[in-house]
Specification:
289 residues, alpha/beta, 9-stranded mixed sheet, 4-stranded mixed sheet, 8 helices, 13 strands, binds alpha-D-ribofuranose
Length: 289
């Protein structure tokens, strides 16, 4: 079983469903509203745990009404919360609009995630003890840099999902072992990704492609009826991390299957499939080629 540490964000997602997303300046009628725990870090931690890894989460919640529920979603998933701190002020929050095609628009407000400016000795020890460090870019970038540098010096594999895409120091990329990006992020990051040994590009319903020492190959999309793509990339990334030790081809199969299943329900953390659900969908993929 892989041991994974996620250093990242946790948010309350405020999810509105609607027939179509409004144009600038337009008001449309919504169909429903739900509050669902999310955040790229938390989603990926839960996805890795459900896919079969042992996971610890390093992050922060606020002292508001959302905090207890955010902590509980990690506890319920059996993600370790010893390194989850509570800070004064609001928790992270995301306003999400999901249309009838299952596509979304998201605005994230950092809240407590922005307070993740330092790593404690216990955080560093957890990173050093792990097989894989999993990071995203919804906490301050200097903290991500500190975590990845410590992982590299400790022999812990660094998996970065550089989302939301933003400018990073050029030297940073050589500290990343595996990058998981969508097609937009790949275009935006350009040649920076040339410094990363293993690059996985997600292609939505069309699956994903891998490039690295194992060659270049793709994995087809897993056909499902998508109702909400929110968190599908996070589920993909968490499952990939959990199965990376089995090699990129196997990890990609788990990731594509888990990511596809995550689109079949509304809400980020609520839609992450269990290991049993992923395994049940894997044989169909294999026999289908
Ligand atoms: O990737 C989906 C996530 O992005 C949502 O859960 C939201 O919180 C934002 O972080």
């Amino acid at each position: 079983m892989a041991r994974i540490v996620v250093v990242g964000s946790i948010n309350m997602d405020l999810v509105t469903t609607t027939g179509r997303r409004p144009e600038p300046g337009e008001t449309v009628l919504g169909r429903g509203f739900e509050m669902v725990p999310g955040g790229k870090g938390s989603n990926q931690a839960i996805a890795a745990r459900r896919a079969g890894a042992e996971v610890d989460f390093v992050g922060a919640v606020g002292d508001d009404l959302f905090a207890a529920e955010l902590r509980a979603v990690l506890d319920d998933a059996e993600v370790g919360t010893r390194r989850l701190r509570s800070v004064a002020g609001p928790s992270g929050a995301a306003s999400i609009v999901v249309d009838s095609e299952g596509e979304n628009s998201i605005i994230v407000v950092g809240g407590a995630n922005a307070a993740m400016t330092e790593l404690a000795d216990g955080d560093l020890a957890a990173i050093a003890d792990a097989d894989v460090l999993l990071c995203q870019l919804e906490i301050p970038v200097p903290t991500v840099l500190a975590a990845t540098r410590h992982a590299r010096t400790s022999g812990t594999t660094v998996l970065l999902n550089p989302s939301p895409a933003q400018e990073l120091p050029p030297e940073f990329w050589s500290e990343v072992d595996i990058a998981v990006v969508n097609e937009g992020e790949r275009a935006r990051l350009g040649s920076a990704l040339d410094h990363v040994a293993h690059v996985v590009v997600t292609r939505g319903a069309d699956g994903a492609v891998y490039r690295g020492p194992e060659g270049e190959f793709g994995h087809p999309g897993v056909p499902v009826r998508a109702v909400d793509t929110t968190g599908a990339g996070d589920t993909f990334t968490g499952a990939l991390a959990a199965h990376w030790h089995e090699g990129p081809a196997t990890a990609l199969a788990w990731a594509c299957t888990a990511g596809a299943l995550a689109t079949t329900k509304l809400g980020a953390s609520a839609s992450i499939p269990s290991r049993t659900e992923i395994e049940a969908a894997l044989p169909a993929r294999r026999s289908g080629g």
